[in-house]
Amino acid sequence: MNFQFKKEKSFNDRKSEHENIMKDHPNKIAIICEKVPESKIKNIDKTKYLVDGNLTIPQFAKTIKKKLDIQKEEALFFLVNGKVTLNGNLTMSEVYKKHKDKDGFLYISYAAEEIWGSKY
User: Fold this and answer.
1) For 53, phi and psi rounded to 5 degrees?
2) Of 31, 71, 25, whose CA–CA distance to 48 is shortest?
3) CA-CA distance, 106 to 49, in Å (whole number)?
4) Residues 22-63 pLDDT 10s
5) What is the largest CA-CA distance in the chain?
6) What is the CA angle 95-116-87, rounded to 5?
7) Rounded to whole angstroms, how far apart are CA atoms 22 and 114?
8) CATH classification of 4-116 is 3.30.10.10, yes or no?
9) H helices present in the chain, as ranges
10) What's the CA gap between 5 and 16, in Å, rounded?
11) Positive or negative, the Cα torsion across 111, 113, 116, 120?
12) Is 44 helix (H, G, I), strand (E, B) or coil?
């Protein structure tokens, strides 16, 4: 997936931004969270998140669902780097260690259930 954040900023600008964030918040994880373009779900109002490393995927999902005004029983899927489905009770630290981008950010995309079916 091509993240809008990456399109709008050069690698060096993104890396510098991440380094500046980490100076003030060394124990946090900087996330860029954007909608999968093909998904019919709405965009969230902000794409940058700073979270505790011990935050779990379900806790992060709850935050995003609130911003999207999605009911808790509705399905929302998360992909890291546009490829790997996030599920289970992994912490953001665990995900970050395995999937962080070279610029330092963790890139997560979200989609509604229909993205996985034939309603593309």
Assistant:
1) -65, -25
2) 31
3) 10
4) 999 999 999 999 999 888 888 898 999 999 999 999 899 888
5) 45
6) 25
7) 36
8) no
9) 4-8, 11-24, 57-68, 92-99
10) 14
11) negative
12) coil
